[in-house]
Amino acid sequence: MYALFTDTDTDITPEVAAHYGMKLISMPYEIDGKEVFPYVDFDKFEPRPFYDKLRSGVMPKTSALNPEIYKEYFEPCLKAGQDVLYVHFSSAMSGTFNALNIAVKELKEKYPENTVYTLDTKAITMGAYAIVREVGDLYLAGKTIPEILEWGKKEIDKFATFFFVEDLKFFKRSGRIKAVAAFMGNMIGLHPIIHISKDGVMTLCDKAVGTKATLNKVISYMQDNQEDIKNHRITIGHTDAPVLAEKLAAKIKETFGNDVTIETVICNPTAGSHSGPDGVGVCFHAKSRLF
């Protein structure tokens, strides 16, 4: 059996990873001058203290892994004669994948009989989580790496993600959302709605005034674009905004029925360093990612 990997930017926790027999690569962030590796430097992520620090004005940083860290994760599996499948967050969002490519090349030279395969979810947090869970289900069902990679070609662009946050200053600082969008986000009551494109980048796709109208717009995107929604997980993600997440879940059930499968996850601190607190969004199975 090959070894299945993902990373903490997909919101997969050690508990979920253990369910699948999946190995978890920790993506670091820096806060209060200290570099922190999720689920290495702590056992359980406590969202309230972390996001309260961000609310108080603390601005965390994130950094890429180096090739040696990737090799430390993968080499024991290759040495044991296993291939590796790494299902990761969007390569368009981080320079860490340059280091990954270096590591994979060096490991191939050392272990020519085995291979590190990668599957780019072209997503992050809740969107990547939904895809990794489906890959995990395929893994437990005994699907091979080629079968999963073929599934990815057909299905990854069918997981659509829409979300919004109260304040886009965190995105503005990181450069993931253009300054004009960040300016709009700071206008009173105006919520830019962010979408993850088929290229795996965050784009501004709409806006609404007030929380109720914004949630309704998100629901309308789901209605217009959903495909076979009841046979796939609907994943709600939030950055320490449980009340907003509950409102969104209630609207989804009101719209699509109580028999939909909804799973709510808390955005991991590394990705949360870019988005900031008080955000909510949804990933669902769609006809396409639209943009």
Query: What is the count of β-strands?
Result: 13
Amount of beta strand: 15-25%
What is the overall shape? globular
Mean pLDDT: 93
Estimate the helix proportion, in percent.
40-55%
List the quaternary state of the chains. Answer: single chain
Side-by-side strand order of the widest sheet: 10-9-8-13-11-12
Instruction: Please give the largest β-sheet.
Output: 6 strands, mixed
Find the structural class using helix and strand composition.
Answer: alpha/beta
SSE order, one letter for each helix or strand: EHEEEHEHEHEHHEHHEEHEHEHE
Low-confidence stretches: none
Rg, rounded, reads 19 Å
Distance between the termini: 37 Å
- Individual helix count: 11
Describe this protein with a few key phrases.
22% strand; 13 strands; 11 helices; alpha/beta; six-stranded mixed beta sheet; 291 residues
How would you portray this structure in words?
With 291 residues, this protein is of the alpha/beta class. It has helices at residues 14-20, 47-55, 67-79, 96-110, 126-140, 145-155, 169-174, 179-185, 211-225, 242-256, 269-275; strands spanning 3-7, 23-25, 29-31, 34-36, 61-62, 84-88, 116-120, 159-165, 190-196, 202-209, 234-238, 262-266, 279-285. Strands 10-9-8-13-11-12 form a six-stranded mixed β-sheet, sandwiched between helices. A four-stranded parallel β-sheet has the order 2-1-6-7, with helices on both faces. Helix 4 links the parallel strand 6 and strand 7 (116-120). It starts with a strand and ends in a 6-residue tail after the last strand. The mean pLDDT is 93.
